[in-house]
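Researcher: Next sequence.
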Amino acid sequence: MEDLISSRREDTKILASWVTLEVSPTRPVALGCPQGTPSAWSVNDAIEINAVALWGQGPQVVLVSVDTLYVGSWLEELIVSALSPVPRENILIGASHTHSAPMTDHSKPELGVPDEEHLSSLVAPVQTSMAELLDPKNCQFVTTTVCFGHAKHSISRRLKASRQELAAGSETVVMRPDWRGTTNEQVLMLELRDLEGTVRAAVWNYACHPVGFPLGDTVSAHFPGAVRSALRTKWGAGTPIVYFQGFSGDTRPRSLAVLNTPRRILGRFLRLQRRRPPTWQHITLQQYDDWLESFVATVLRISERPKVVEVTSALASRTVIHGEQFVSPPQNVSFQAIKLGKSLAIVAASAELVAEYAVPVRRMTRSALGSRWVMLVGFIDTPF
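Model: Next structure:
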């Protein structure tokens, strides 16, 4: 593997810089769409902002991920301002969408109200970190590899309502497990390696709602944080790991312990026989840890299969469409596309796109941009 990477090293060189910043709260704060109490004090694992910049004559593209439910306009503007003079279309800012992090989006008070003191504490560190990212002294030449594979760890969380439910006035689709529902199990990772072959930073992508963490009053980055920790154990402490949430509007963790035991399968069969649809079961901490261990092991296995790609240039575009086409009352929806070399593209939108969009959007992107690998990203900016 290392020989293959070394043989193509000169073809794939590009300047890059990276930074990681912990932004865990130091006092009780409101969480975004919490699954327990509205606020949390204890921190299970660190909340972070990670960023990677790819350079030409100057910073060409900046990729930023934030451990939060939605980035929101306040934090988006802070990051964009700190990255000046990089053009806005060259900056991609995505939320991991963890439901166990401080709320940073002011536009959705029903899901949580941001703590202003916590937000204020972010200003100076974010500005300092982004300045470090843009400092040419922190650039170095890297080669790029892609790791690609599939997991089996998500499940559709939306089920068509039964006839009885529809007759009773139910919505057409209800929040219940759908074992036959569409999921998007692609795991795609871009690795930035120094000229000795050591991974110095990475950008990865998977589509699954970070929900189900059993300690509802505890701050957690959920599975993006667990994968980050595992990759840092492999590559070195502090390695920046950018995570972009995929088209996961209708998928969530598939708890192997809850959904696949013989007792659950028999129970599911009996419920279907009685025309009673299945419901979500409470996931214990042990069951969650089992699912997490299995998923992290899958990502680590995928990371062991790097393929050399040419990322010697980066192109970006961005458009904002008035949202009367999508939602009422209308809100702006931003779409962004970034082409990294000939083989890799990122397509993103400020929405909770569902997994059913993955196949057609990936197909269109490959046709339009000629990219073999495509990262599909939701939850950028301020989704409606």
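Model: The two ends are 44 Å apart (CA to CA). Residues 1-10 have pLDDT under 50 and may be disordered.
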